[in-house]
Hints:
Rossmann fold; seven-stranded parallel β-sheet; 7 helices; alpha/beta
Amino acid sequence: MSSTTGKEKPFNGKLALITGSSRGIGAETAKSLAAAGAHVILTGRDVKALESVEDAIHEDGGTSTIAPLDLSEPDAISRLAAAISGRWDALDFLVISAAYLPTLTPVTQIDQKQMSLAITTNILATQALLAAFDPMLKRADAGRVIGLTSSVGSTARAYWAAYGSTKAAFESLLDSYAQEVEKIGGVKVAIVDPGATRTDMRAKAYPGEDPATVKTPDVVADQIKSLLIADFATSHRERVS
């Protein structure tokens, strides 16, 4: 990732919170937004991985803050929101990248513990994030929410029901929130389907796939950055090819 000069940094003075930023698309999005001038808050469970992302950001001249947390833990998001709002007044970008993929299996054999974790991580945490950071997003000049989804959230696929059903609910939450804030402030919401991308989740779902045959996470990250720079109509949707 190349450094960006001051005049080329469109996000100078902006604050971005990215969930799941310890690796994959979340990590690359954090690096991309930081390179564009945003101060990025990194969240995830793996502290060492978060530190590695932060090191890369700082080496490129960017700034970031690490906030380790497990989205499935009770009150984790409210504690995060309290800490962030105690230091900053407004949140410009909320990128919801973190997700949990249960084992691919027939509907009749879905593991209830895995399904519960998927519901907590993919649905309940999303609602909690929107509720906790709504005030900070509304205090921004142009608050933006980007939610990363999957095609199985809108089109059912055999063996993907445990994940796909949570992504369908995830999209519904974001779409409803977009409609609720559209007339009362400057917050806008976009749902982005990364498509086939070289991530740990992809490798788990397609263990026999050659990683070199799918795009790298930085491609998606650059598309998210471009989307935020160009701006979009609320309830925007797009798929990264």
